[in-house]
Design a protein that fits this description.
The complex is a heterodimer. Helices cover 77% and strands 0% of the residues of chain A. By secondary structure, chain A is mainly alpha-helical. Chain B has 18 helices and two strands. The N terminus and C terminus of chain B are likely disordered. Classes of the chains: A mainly alpha, B mainly alpha.
Chain lengths: 304, 377
């Protein structure tokens, strides 16, 4: 187990390094700098800015300098937000994004898994309709859901605030928007897992013993049926990160997604790169946790 | 009944190989026919295919339809709600002053520059003039902030949204099939390394890198033109190069199992080169599964395009796409006046198309690849 964790850690570090290198050279290879403004500034000022951010030094020096800085979790100053470091932006945006993401993940699990299991057990018409709704949920972009929900619940029936951050009521709509596509995926996976498990012989044995259905479902079938669901949680985190870009922007939530979109639009290279690195790290941690959980869940799985 | 199945089977896989298979075993059911039967039993997939054909044809032949120009701004009708009566209006009257304003514009479709319309659309527009004159459907889906007809914008947006989806999916197809094919065929440590690379790439949130890249490249005026790329072309390449990973994995799995087949051994024995064996003998056999996953890639790409356009990083005006229409709809949303049609209609178009594409792709996958994890990883 320890060897496994160490191996994962090494791969994760390698991936992070690759992402860093890729985005570093992408940034530098794009002609023109982040300080191109509409108005012309004198060469002296240009040089000063370049010196301030270390852009006048040789490329190799910049690369290794920045690499060693990033390795110590210092993501440097933001190019556009004056007197702001990338770390500060992250510290300010992270709580909102984490709250939003975790709540959505929980809602998606609470919604998708039972419905999928129900469809897998009942089959027939229930199953067909659940499958159709699942495809619909997967197909609907989060911003379409968000716009429609705002339309209905904020403007036609003014019961929920359309935007903002801070009160629990303001959480409702964004969390639903992020959770629906994920819930649809999870429902499909839970259904597939349940379909497979429900035919197993030990389930028939449990039924033959006359155990109450709830015990069979939750105690016997549930753990085995959850295998595909658990393995999907890694991609699910990725989906939430992506979805949060649009949802945070739509609902004016001061999280990392908003910061990232603004950084990309403003060509704030250091901020964008720092956030890409952070997202990659989150994803890697999530994937590693899922792998470990899978191994604990099903000891038959080979060491990965 | 059996006749119709025959025809349909040919239609789904018109290649010579399928016909041959059917000839070799006339008594038993050929794989192609089995696939078609299994697909046919899936009613929602069949209906999706029909809808998709209709949507595709409507998008291709949009210029023939009596729709108002998607760029014709009738400012006095800004944010006019949907209007059904009268069903037809005279565009010449609507655009009385707008048409005069710009002589450079195409005479056929106000708002478009003359050189913007290729020969195909030009011919269609000519046909429309012959049939409908200047009569156009009234704005039955309402008008946007500038007074442009939303229905027409949805139709013209369909062309771009669908084209982006198809072309980028084809790019991903090319990359994925070649990469997966080589990896599965060569095997050994090459395979291990190539698949590790795919694993590593899959753990990178590429969407963020792409957003960053597009924003960085796009912001510099003239840079893309100097490289001979439009924003759209850049989009195809970048998006296609992100979405090939699943395809590579699937193709590799197929190739790996096909390699064991006797016909591969036979081809190798008569001296066919590895490249020939792979591209002529093995890869054609994967076409069913590839088709299924291609159908599933298209909605993913379209979703991504809509996503980027919604954030203001994708398709740029005056072009329209569904994501852009949604964004425009949301941007005029205020508590004071609720212009629901600007959100509801583009939302239906986008979601409906993505829905049928997903349903069709699922149906194809179940038919071609019954053991390939109905859950979809």
């Amino acid at each position: 187990m320890i060897a496994f964790v160490l191996k994962r850690l090494l791969t994760a570090l390698l991936t992070l390094w690759a992402v860093f290198t890729l985005s570093f050279f992408l940034m530098r290879s794009v002609p023109g700098g982040p300080f191109d403004r509409d108005q012309q500034v004198s060469d002296e000022i240009q040089e000063r800015i370049a010196a301030r951010y270390g852009l006048d030094r040789p490329l190799a020096e910049q690369y290794f300098g920045e690499l060693s800085r990033v390795a110590t979790f210092d993501l440097g100053p933001s190019y556009r937000l004056t007197d702001y470091s990338v770390n500060q932006v992250i510290v300010e945006g992270l709580p909102a994004s984490v709250t939003l993401g975790l709540l959505s993940l929980l809602l998606a699990i609470a919604l998708g898994v039972p419905v999928g299991m129900w469809a897998g057990i009942r089959r027939g018409r229930v199953d067909r309709w659940v499958c159709r709704f699942a495809v619909l949920g997967i197909a609907t972009p989060s911003f379409v859901i968000a716009s429609l929900l705002i339309l209905v619940f904020s403007f036609w029936l003014p019961i929920l605030p359309p935007a903002g951050w801070g009160s629990p009521m303001q959480l409702v709509l964004p969390v639903i928007c992020l959770a629906i596509p994920l819930a649809a995926y999870l429902a499909r996976l839970a259904r597939a897992g349940m379909l497979e498990t429900w035919n197993a012989e030990y389930i028939r044995t449990a039924q033959a013993k006359g155990l109450p259905p709830s015990v069979i479902v939750w105690k016997h079938a549930f753990p085995a049926a959850m295998l595909p669901v658990v393995s999907f949680l890694g991609p699910a985190v990725a989906g939430i990160l992506t979805g949060s870009l649009v949802v945070e922007r739509l609902f004016a939530i001061p999280g990392l997604g908003t910061s990232f979109v603004n950084a990309a639009l403003d060509r704030d290279y250091t901020l964008a790169m720092g956030l890409v690195l952070l997202y990659t790290a989150i994803l890697l941690v999530a994937n590693a946790l899922v792998d470990i959980a899978q191994k604990l869940h099903d000891p038959r799985l080979e060491a990965l | 009944m059996s006749e119709s199945i025959d025809k349909s089977a040919e239609r789904t896989s018109p290649s010579a190989a399928a016909a041959e298979e059917a000839n070799v075993a006339p008594q038993s059911v050929s794989p192609a026919r089995q696939v078609w039967r299994s697909f046919h039993r899936n009613r929602s997939a069949v209906w999706s295919l029909r809808f998709l054909v209709v949507i595709g044809l409507l998008a291709i032949f949009t210029p023939v339809l009596p729709l108002q120009s998607p760029r014709l701004a009738v400012t006095e009708l800004s944010l006019a709600p949907p209007q059904v009566s009268p069903l037809f209006v005279d565009q010449a009257k609507l655009a009385a002053d707008a048409a005069e304003a710009n002589a450079q514009q195409s005479a056929l479709e106000p708002g478009f520059a003359a050189d913007e319309i290729d020969w195909f659309d030009g011919a269609l527009l000519q046909v429309r003039r012959k049939i409908f004159g200047t009569w156009r459907l009234n704005s039955i889906c309402g008008r946007d902030l500038l007074g442009r007809d939303l229905l027409s914008r949805i139709f013209w947006g369909a062309r771009i949204s669908l084209a982006v989806g198809c072309v980028a999916a084809l790019v991903s197809l090319l990359l994925g099939v070649i990469y997966g094919g080589v990896s599965g065929y060569v095997g050994g440590w090459v395979d291990t390394v190539m698949m590790r690379v795919v694993d590593a790439l899959q753990s990178i949130p590429f969407i963020f890198v792409v957003i960053f890249l597009i924003a960085a490249l796009d912001a510099r005026d003239g840079l893309l033109e100097r490289w001979g790329l439009s924003r759209l072309a850049l989009f195809f390449v970048v998006v296609g190069s992100v979405f090939w990973l699943t395809m590579a994995r699937v193709v590799r799995g197929q190739v790996k199992s096909l390699r064991q087949e006797p016909f591969v051994e036979a081809a190798t024995a008569i001296g066919a080169s590895p490249a020939r064996v792979l591209f002529r003998h093995i890869l054609p056999h994967t076409r069913g599964v590839v088709l299924a996953y291609l159908t599933l890639t298209v909605p993913r790409v379209m979703l991504f395009e809509a996503f980027l356009s919604f954030l203001g990083l994708g398709i740029a005006p005056p072009d329209v796409s569904w994501g852009l229409l949604m964004q425009e709809g949301v941007s005029v949303l205020t508590p004071i006046r609720v212009d629901w049609w600007l959100i509801v209609f583009p939302g239906i178009a986008l979601t409906g198309t993505l829905f049928v594409l997903n349903a069709l792709g699922d149906g194809l996958r179940d038919a071609f690849d019954p053991h390939g994890g109905a859950a979809g990883k």
